Amino acid sequence: QVQLVESGGGLVQPGGSLRLSCVYSGVFVDDYAIGWFRQAPGKEREYISSTSSDGSAYYVDSVKGRFTISRDNAKNTVYLQMSSLRPEDTAVYYCAATTDSYGRPFYAPSPPSLYEYWGQGTQVTVSS
Predict the structure, then answer these.
(1) What are the E-state strand segments in the chain?
(2) Cα–Cα dist 18/40, whole Å
(3) What order do you get walking across the sheet with 18-25 strand by strand?
C-alpha cells in the first residue's frame, strides 16, 4: 500500500523560506517518480516539480531558481526547499507518486492525472 505524508507547511513572510517533506512508504523508489503540486483557492492543481530515481528533476518557470527538489532514499523522503517565497506561492502543497513513465521529469511538466498516489497536502501561506 502506497502512502505519502507531507509536512513542513506554515505561515512565512514574503522572501522567507520553508522546507516541505514528503515521507513515502510502499514505494519501490526505482520505479516511481515523485512530484510536487500545489492548489490555490479557486484554482486548479498545478505541477511544480518532480524527480525520479536517476536524480533528474524539472521545475516550472514560476519556481525555477527558488525551489529545489531533493530526495533521501535512506529516509524514504523527498524534500521541496522553497526560498524567496511570494504571496502567490500561497497554496496547499501536495506530493504525489507515479509509475507512469510520462510522469518522469523527462516528460515534465506533468498533469496531475498521471500521478496515482497522493498525500493529504500541507498548507503554505506567504503573507506579511
Answers:
(1) 3-7, 10-12, 18-25, 33-39, 46-51, 57-59, 67-72, 77-82, 91-98, 117-118, 122-126
(2) 17
(3) 3-7, 18-25, 77-82, 67-72
Predicted confidence (pLDDT) at residue 86 exceeds the cutoff of 90: yes
Cα–Cα distance for residue pair 96/33, rounded to 1 Å: 8
User: What residues contact 44, with CB distance under 8 A and at least 6 apart?
Assistant: none
Give the separation between CA 29 and CA 32, rounded to whole angstroms. Answer: 5
- Residues 101 and 64: their CA atoms lie apart, in Å, by 23
C-alpha cell at 123: 498548507
Determine the distance from the C-alpha atom of residue 115 to the mean position of all C-alpha atoms in its chain, rounded to a whole number: 12
Please give the DSSP secondary-structure letter assigned to residue 50: E
Number of neighbouring beta carbons within 10 Å of residue 56: 13
Predicted pLDDT of residue 127: 97
Residue 126 sits at the vertex; the CA angle it makes with 23 and 89, to the nearest 5 degrees, is 70
